[in-house]
């Protein structure tokens, strides 16, 4: 009801009103707002002397009665209210119109919905306690927030600075930083983020909130911590472990609360007793270190001590040390694989329920008995390439959802034609259909270490839209005519096509053909059953096509390199699957030239589509920008490079690329990999945006050295690509069917959608990284480091801290901290055989090295890029995620019994990591099945949509089970 929405806006404010309207706008909920105040039969004028609340209640009831009669009494209408006077007055007035409280609504209409009843009881109890506490006279723990109008005026005048609060997860109680985003005049003077030191200065702001900050006087500025620090011991960090003073401030108000669902753990029995006798109020500890403890009221605390639980924050008053919240639901047992995966999804606000019946009803039919076929009407309007083009795909082994294919041929005039063919997903996903709305909400396919959650139903992603060999498929093709010698682009066309891929190649086979290795021919299924003469003819055609494509790609890449394109470091893996589609092996992806060939063709298509849609829709095209990084973020990179005698020029992307190419140590290839990884860390993220939201000079993609760029080539797994396909169709085909141009978003709506997609992409990256860390910890958790050689590895130092070093372990792709000073104050000392032990002494940190000196005068120095031997341990935590911990055991490179770890052994270890964890988790789950308590009987179903291997991005983009924040998102 319109009246009810306005009541929420009036009583609860704009934020709650906006949340309500967004829920209604989501087509998946099948809701609309009925403008009852503008309808002649439901409008009621306000009577003289009548209060606003009474008039709103009367208006809503009158509209409910009208709607009941409008539906001819075929279904009851329920008006839910907590106004007891309204219930007494209207409860029995009209048959078929129920006016009841929310509790009665649940009791009468949903008596068996246990989760809803528990949630309501939790909210009601929290509300009562909040009202009770407001009547008590408590002293203030925090300053009051300033009114919104004062904050807005202060930001405009430059007195306050607006930004997003980012809490340091390693010192969550003390350190947070505000990343600038407002319009204050002081921002131009600041060259770094603003430090918020201590809980009182944070003033009840929670990680992710948009806050208003007042800078402190210069003499109160502090430095951020440069020492390694464990969360549980952060208050014990030495006072002399901070860097140079930086802008420091305090939060004076919250502009936007970005609260979400939080995964928490209840205190153990001993901790509960220490909290006091009142067991109704419990302080629960969030899974995320950056979130403060939350006080909730529940009678289930003892029963839920061994479970991950979801809670929501309701409020945080200035008189309370902690925020107040309420219980939502149970996820699973602490330590169980499925429960921990569920926690990762909730923490990243990822909701991936199975596709609904109504969404599946929109899907075309395709089965072994009734396979999907091309519509004759489509043949009339599409460009048919089935008999004129040799089209083939190149993908990782096991890939099923093939959304891109390539072609190259010689034209009658002697020129070349290069083609990139992308699955025509939008033909099957109508704008604003239920499937489209669901895909828009998900925004991307989510890939974890052992599974994926699809953006689209598999009937599309793995069948009808997958460009499989020998199958007729709809595509959107970009075709370029190239000069035969110089490869100069003469013209380009964009077409809706019908294609039939001739080959589904894997990267290794394509590279073999490129290198002249005919031994891989046996792996090409499409050539197996041919006679020798035909096979040799087709093989020659295929080899020519791959070679020509590679030559063209080299030329295109050289042009981008000349403009400053960056090659950033990312460790990728290939997944081998067994017959049951379980992960059998994880093999480090070997760099092949054919990888670059395919990537360069995709980048080319994305670039030209970006130019086309931005020309036709200058104010409402979806593009992708990569802003230049802030120069101060390159400080660590420059310092590390100088330790090896290299100079890194960061003044432009071209200068950076050239200096990174020169920073090679012929004796240690890991050095260049780490430097490129540091360069990646310094980069800002690439983001989607609407062309009407910023000036054209900001369209540039820094990493790719392109003026305009978008994503067009993966519509199966990215919603941004679906939007771009619709824009391209509207721009090039002048379609009238379905009013294509009516499906183009306005600049405002498109920018809002871009923010949503960017947010979901970041969530997907975090979830992928966290699931990788989970598998790493579960793999090492049950191993004995003293006897299991898999826990001993070679490590490379890549950063120096005041009390230790940061180390990269190439064997597992792990990054972690290694302390040189323990909790007892002893320092790491090395013996004559270079083994290490703890002794009294002191540490001295320099720019590129750290020296430990014992009280007896023995000293040892560790420098950047030194190779050392480390022991891999797991630091367990009941309330938080476990973490990998490294311990230096020898000041020398690790030597195995066979001198070197072979590539084969390396990927067997990686296979063990996923396979062993998955198998042990499944066995544990089966053992617990009969004993599982009622409260978690339905926990896991909503999270297990797709428990197969990750057959696209895990194959293409997942990092090598690493803690490297190396994102393909930055590169493309």
UniProtKB/TrEMBL annotation:
Molecular function, one GO term: RNA binding
Keywords: Cytoplasm, Exonuclease, Exosome, Hydrolase, Magnesium, Nuclease, RNA-binding
Compartment(s) of residence: Cytoplasm
Annotated EC: 3.1.13.1
Reactions catalysed according to its record: Exonucleolytic cleavage in the 3'- to 5'-direction to yield nucleoside 5'-phosphates
Entry-linked SUPFAM superfamilies: Nucleic acid-binding proteins
CC annotations in GO: cytoplasmic exosome (RNase complex)
Co-factor requirement: Mg(2+)
GO annotation terms (biological process): gene expression; mRNA catabolic process; rRNA catabolic process
Boundaries of every RNB domain copy: 382-734
Domain of life of the source: Eukaryota
Main location: cytoplasm
Family: Belongs to the RNR ribonuclease family.
The protein, known as: DIS3-like exonuclease 1
Native source species: Athene cunicularia (Burrowing owl)
